[in-house]
Amino acid sequence: MSEKRKKPVLLSGIQPTGELMIGNYIGALRNWVALQDQYDSLFVLVDLHALTVRQNPPDLLRRCREFLCLYLACGVDPDRNTIFVQSHVPGHSQLLWILNCLTPMGELKRMTQFKEKSCSHRTNINMGLFDYPVLMAADILLYGTGLVPVGDDQKQHLELARNLAERFNARFGDIFTVPEPYIPVTGARIMSLQDPTSKMSKSDNNHLNYIALLDSPDLIRQKLRRAVTDAGNRIRYDAARPGISNLLNLFSVITDTPVDLVEQAYDGKGYGEFKNDLTEVLAGFLGPIQGRYAEFMAEPPYIEKILREGAAAARARSEMMLEKIHDAMGLIPFIRGKNPG
Ligand code: ATP
Ligand code: LTN
């Protein structure tokens, strides 16, 4: 067994919908990068999850490539991790079916994301949208994952994955690792710029609500200028003032400075100056990511190689796990290299 495989397994994914934005970076990608050395890490572009909402095929294809290049530009290292596309590994859909047969519909009806997406996609409430959390559980359980770095909004889905692992193990023997969420202490829920009581979301129809990783400095300035702040003009963190508190959080995370020190630095200064400085901070942070992104986008053969190798490694691992699962459940083993039966 190689050195890499002895480490505990970490897996996470982001669906290629909308535009990758600063909340996705702070809640998820930043931690993928921070943890990638300590774990045997798998990072998945969960394209099948994206099909739960209507997609235009050429746009989806372009977005998948852009997302992969952004993962790399943010520091996810293909030499130290397995990076792959969910639809390249059939085991995810196979395990989905098995887990479906262990999931009471009541558990899925309670899911907050299903309720929210059912409201925002009223004309397309499909089975996939309902089953989305079970596919996520399959992604996780298929590799014996111990740790799943995600933002706060995914807590409920992680709980389902844990329940399914425990239910399966109790019925069929100790096959699955029960995964733990890794949710950052700060930045687990970055809020929308125009409505700081809702989560910032990369598929928001109103682009003013989020800072995309590919936004230009001018666009960042415009978006921050229009970001809702609260009555008053003091730069103070206060749960009753979600607008300025959200911006303070962003400033604190990106500059790696505790919120109280940021507050001290802006004592007596106004929203205008703070927003200008936050623009500089974000533009300065995103500039190098955008530079690396452009370099990766100009290297399609390199990206294809990463995906080919990632899919091969993930397929091999997933097939071994599926054999164990099938065996435990009483399905006839598939005999490699021979015709079954
Ligand atoms: P969509 O709007 O397309 O449904 P999203 O912005 O909610 O997408 P996801 O693809 O659902 O993003 O999530 C990708 C990762 O980013 C997940 O780990 C999720 O928890 C995290 N994340 C999403 N939004 C935020 C946010 N506002 N703050 C912190 N983390 C977030
Ligand atoms: N549902 C997740 C994306 C996702 C995921 C996963 C995250 C799909 N499969 C496996 C972690 C592990 C979301 O962020 N919306």
Overview of the molecule:
The protein is mostly helical and 341 residues long. It has two domains: 3-186 and 299-329, 3-Layer(aba) Sandwich (Rossmann fold); 207-295, Tyrosyl-Transfer RNA Synthetase, CATH 1.10.240.10. 54% of the residues lie in helices and 6% in strands. A three-stranded parallel β-sheet has the order 1-2-3. Bound molecules: adenosine-5'-triphosphate (ATP) and L-tryptophanamide.
How many E-type strands?
Answer: 5
* Number of H- or I-type helical stretches: 14
- Write down the domain tally: 2
CATH architectural grouping of the largest domain: 3-Layer(aba) Sandwich
Q: CATH superfamily membership of the largest domain, which one?
A: HUPs
Query: Rg, please?
Result: 21 Å
Q: What proportion of the residues form beta strands (DSSP E)?
A: 5-15%
Helix percent reads 40-55%
Instruction: Outline the biggest β-sheet.
Output: 3 strands, parallel
- Order of strands, widest sheet: 1-2-3
SSE order in H/E notation? Answer: HEHEHHEHHHHEHEHHHHH
Descriptive keywords:
about 350 residues, three-stranded parallel beta sheet, binds adenosine-5'-triphosphate, about 5% strand, mainly alpha, two-stranded parallel sheet, binds L-tryptophanamide, Tyrosyl-Transfer RNA Synthetase
Condensed summary:
By secondary structure, the chain is mostly helical. The chain contains 14 helices and 5 strands.
